[in-house]
Structure prediction request, 472 residues.
Amino acid sequence: MSYEMVIGLEVHVQLKTQAKIFSNAATLYGQEPNTQVSFLDIALPGTLPVVNKQAIDMAVMFGLAVDATISKNSFFARKNYFYPDLPKGYQISQSNNPIVQNGQLEITTNKGIKTIRIERAHLEEDAGKSVHDFIGDQTGLDYNRAGTPLLEIVTHPDFRSAEEVICYLKDLHQLVQHLGICDGNMQEGSFRCDVNLSIRKSGEDLGTRAELKNINSFRFIESAIHYEYQRQVNVLDKGGIITQETRLYDPDNNETRSMRSKENAFDYRYFPDPDLLPIILSNEEIESIHSQMPLLPKVRRETYAKTLNADEVNFLMDNPTVADYYDALAKSISAKTAYNWVAVELQAVFNRAQSTFDAKRVPIEILLELIACVDKDEVSLKSAKTVLQNYYDQPQAIQSIIDQLGVRQSNDLGLVESLVDEILEQNPQQVQDYRAGNKKLLSFFVGQIMKNSKGKANPKQVNELLNKKLNE
Prediction:
């Protein structure tokens, strides 16, 4: 019997704020357990939460990016359930009238363009984390993550294949990164997905769904969908009944396993949080956020494609931090030159250091100064790369590094001519071979001259003089 796959997604996007959503505790990843927790995060008696405006602005920005309706009067509610890593015994979230409603995201699959409807995106706080096998066979609780702001993005059940799901998730992942509201690090849990999957025969009502919880890899999501679809098919073909439940995906064994029965909304006993005022947004505030938004990925890609090739465009789109740096640099120099310096030379410096790209390590004005030195023939391109590496290792004035390395280029035409004459005189056979047609020897002569000058000869002058003297 042929069954249709029906999927809706709940994506948890960890917002890139400096502080948590209801306290001023930090949100840095990888710190010692329970070192980034305030009294507010665990709701000690007498504490009153205060909402982080930056989280609200980021939620609005996302809503505008997906053509959604922004609620001008949303509110927070308490979602009541017990779980060991939920210190309050409830989660502050949004139920009715969330801040973002009725959006859409267009995706492109092998079958063409499809619009995925986004039912809602609501703000909430993250829970803590249960740590197993850290203290013998006991479970430890790390509340560093508790209170970190999340934007939960919920779609309608519009997906009919794993391919559509992955296309949507990749586009959504790229969108939140380029908006600057999420770092998109799936290994650290900054972008994770719940998959609600059911099956039905064509034309029938929706089937009973199973929720695949907290999967943080595109490959694992795809594998989990294929496995769960086949599991449900097997159950129905044998005359069984699908149970509404939450299941975990085990990537080692490529299977889903039952975790617990799936709650319905009424099980959470939502009620408005008495400690938090409604979020009131004016048209002016929404317009102000809209005016500060960066280019959306689709527009950005189209802009890059006007001056860069497909591989270059894809690299920038996959690396928003590098793209932001490139955009700023390309305002002062040509697109190709900016790309080569940022995505090739500067990126290579970070790669050698096994470090992620950080604009603060080499400020744009420093790189522009170095590029200007090349343009003015103060240093050769090869020497400039060495200067860049030295600046990264030990930042100081570019001119000082040039002098310390002794790579300042000489533009003394007389000196260069004497070096050219010397090399040609020392290599008569190569001169004869060049004039006989072996033009590749030109690079040999250039290399010898640059070596004798310790890299200080102007390569342009060297090439011009060699061409003139070799072709006399």
Summary: The first helix runs from residue 53 to 65. The chain has a mean pLDDT of 91. The CA atoms of residues 141 and 430 lie 74 Å apart.
